[in-house]
Amino acid sequence: MTMPLTEPGTVPPTLVKDPLWWRSAVIYQVYVRSFADSDGDGTGDLRGVRSRLGYLKELGVDALWFNPWYPSPLADGGYDVSDYRDIHPTFGTLEDAELLITEALELGIRTIIDIVPNHLSSEHPWFRAALAAGPGSPERGRFWFHPGKGPNGDEMPTSWISNFQGDTWTRTVNPDGTPGEWYLHLFTPEQPDLNWNHPDVRREHEDILRFWFDRGVAGVRIDSAGLLIKDPALPEVPAEVPPGGHPTEDRDEVHDVYRSWRRIADSYEGTRVLVGEVWVPDAQRFAAYLRPDEMHTAFNFDFMSRPWDAAELRASIDLMLAAHAPVGAPSTWVLSNHDVTRPVTRYGREDSSFAFARKRFGTPTDLDLGRRRARAAALLTAALPGSLYLYQGDELGLPEVELPREVLEDPMHFRSGGVDPGRDGCRVPLPWRGVAAPFGFSPEVPGGDGTVAAPWLPQPAEWAALTVQAQESDPASMLWLYRQALRIRRREGSLGDGTLTWLPSDPTALVFQRGDDVVNVTNLGTAPMALPDHDRILLSSTPLVGGMLPPDSTAWLHRPA
Ligand code: GLC
Ligand code: MG
Fold first, then answer.
1. How confident is the model at residue 450 (pLDDT cuts 50, 70, 90)?
2. Domain Glycosyl hydrolase family 13 catalytic spans what residues (predicted)?
3. Are residues 130 and 18 located together in one domain of the fold?
4. Burial 388-425 (b: 16+ CB within 10 A, else e)
């Protein structure tokens, strides 16, 4: 096994240079299971990622965020962790992870891992011990075990609704076979919630952070970060929730957890960052997570949830920049991730906003329109002040896949009674090359008969036109657009962290200046628009027509300072 990277004298230069890297970074999200498969089992793995680091370098990203890569029964795609200090055997070994972190750093790319503190897997040793030890045991104190209501205890302690729909409590069976206590799970029953009032839980997670920081990770993405603390009185959710008054969401006490995590992060060389998955609709309460002694940044889901509409997007930009300013944190810009409908699909729909509750099979989609808008959105978000997230496959313009029901795995689908298609459609393995599935995702097994394993989710035949190989030779492709945009973003000092100034424009356009010399123009109207003064066009998501910017397009202009 390789040595932890932060042994004295071994901190790689990439980790310590540029302490403010996270304020402007472009962070590429790797869904390991679907990125690249090295061993031919149809599932992506860490060696697959290592073999494609050159591709990521060429794309121009600063950091990689890996979805959970730990041992897990995969009841929720790995967000049900059974060992926080190892790698899922299908993905590789701890040594593979250490090599990956090191090799990426050698290319100047940092690694961010996913930490899942709200819950763990029902197969985790702690939960198994809790079930075995029975009611009232110290082992159960790390979770939310509770007797049921009603004379026989057969009613749930509360009627809280799961984030995946349905119940949040499951009844246990006592070691002697009689019906027992209930335990809380805000997600599936395979994901019991931890009790963050328990010192073991806090200590354990602090130790897990150190374990990975010692191995050279540059940051952690904190899953379901607003949910950790529960009201121990277990009240029902009030009809009108006062600020901080929800029994399981965004409680004020949660901030203590991140203050202690920040102290740990700050004790390491190089800036190790905390990035929160904070679904808190109130912009001020959201920004409270980003106070100087808490997290560095959090995912901006407001922008991602809005429809393709100039007034809506402008309102979101203003809202989020204003919310971040008082705490001194940069905003993030996020068009998608492994939980949401791909932008090419979303922006091609009549309702182009995003909400989990509205996902349906068979929603009519104009993919040409969606692709045009996704290209425009790519440049728009890359021009906004702060850091940028790019979910794997969006750089190829992959659409959401409407998979056959029999291959679906996502618990969100099943817990909706089959109404919600779930999140598998944005998790289909990437197409790398060739004209037929698996499009280079998996290698041929050496010495085999030439057959290749089927990818764990099937890829559509139309993806032949969207492979990396096909796009690399097409300057009009999404991949070229992203490569050029990220190159320009890195080169132009005005982009990335900073402020923006809105320039006068028609209300159907988003026109703003960054620094002294870069102007973003996004046309969300229905007619071509004239461009403001400039001396050069840096990049445009659609070719200009007679010097005019077509609808659903973005151009970046250079103007003399
Ligand atoms: C986060 C993850 C999602 C997961 C959930 C429960 O929202 O992004 O994929 O299902 O947390 O861990
Ligand atoms: Mg594999």
1. confident
2. 29-427
3. no
4. bbbbbbbbbbbbbbebeeeebbbbbbbbbeeebbbbbb
Residue that terminates a domain, selected from 184, 211, 227? 184
Judging by beta carbons within 10 Å of its beta carbon (0-12, 13-18, 19+), is residue 83 exposed, middle or buried?
Answer: middle
Ligand 1 atom closest to Cα of 337?
A: 8
Query: Is the pLDDT assigned to residue 309 strictly greater than 90?
Result: yes
Task: Identify whether 446 is part of a domain.
Answer: yes
Residue 561: per-residue pLDDT: 81
Residue 553's CATH number: 2.60.40.1180
What is the number of the ligand 1 atom nearest to the C-alpha of 116? 12
Spacing, Cα 261 to ligand 2 middle (Å): 33
- Residues lining ligand 2 (ion), CB within 5 A? 37, 39, 41, 43, 45
Nearest protein Cα to ligand 1, atom 3: 339
The candidate with the shortest Cα–Cα distance to 66, out of 75, 170, 81, 58, is 81
> Within a 13 Å sphere around the CA of 444, how many CA atoms are in the beta-carbon half?
7
Tell me if 196 is assigned to some domain: no
- CA 44 – ligand 2 centroid, Å: 5
Does residue 348 belong to any structural domain of this protein? Answer: yes
Span from the CA of 93 to the centroid of ligand 2 (angstroms): 12
Atom number, ligand 1, closest to the C-alpha of residue 339: 9
What's the average model confidence in pLDDT over 25-35? 99
Domain of residue 173: give its range: 125-184
pLDDT at 446: 67
Ligand 1 centroid to residue 103 C-alpha, Å: 28
Question: 509 and 409 in one domain?
Answer: no
User: Counting atoms of ligand 1 from 1, which one is nearest the CA of 76?
Assistant: 10
Q: Do 108 and 147 belong to one domain?
A: no
Is 308 in the same domain as 163? no
User: Which CATH number covers residue 94?
Assistant: 3.20.20.80
* pTM to 2 decimal places: 0.97
Question: Atom 9 in ligand 1: which residue has the minimum CA distance?
Answer: 339
Q: What is the domain-level CATH number for residue 153? A: 3.90.400.10
On whether both 258 and 306 belong to a single domain, the answer is yes
Is 37 in the same domain as 155? Answer: no
With respect to residue 129, please indicate whether it lies within any of the assigned structural domains: yes
List the residue whose alpha carbon is closest to atom 4 of ligand 1. 79
Per-residue pLDDT averaged across 122-137, rounded? 96
Question: Residue 1 pLDDT > 50, yes or no?
Answer: no
Task: pLDDT band for 12, please (50, 70, 90 cuts).
Answer: confident
pLDDT tens profile 265-301:
999 999 999 999 999 999 999 999 999 999 999 999 9
pLDDT band at 393 (very low <50, low <70, confident <90, very high): very high
Domain identity same for 324 and 438: yes
Residue 140, Cβ density class (10 Å: 0-12 exposed, 13-18 middle, ≥19 buried): buried
Residues 6 or more apart in contact with residue 507 via CB below 8 angstroms: 310, 311
Ligand 1 neighbours by CB, cut-off 6 Å: 76, 79, 116, 187, 223-224, 277, 338-339
Nearest alpha carbon to residue 378 among 482, 258, 476: 482
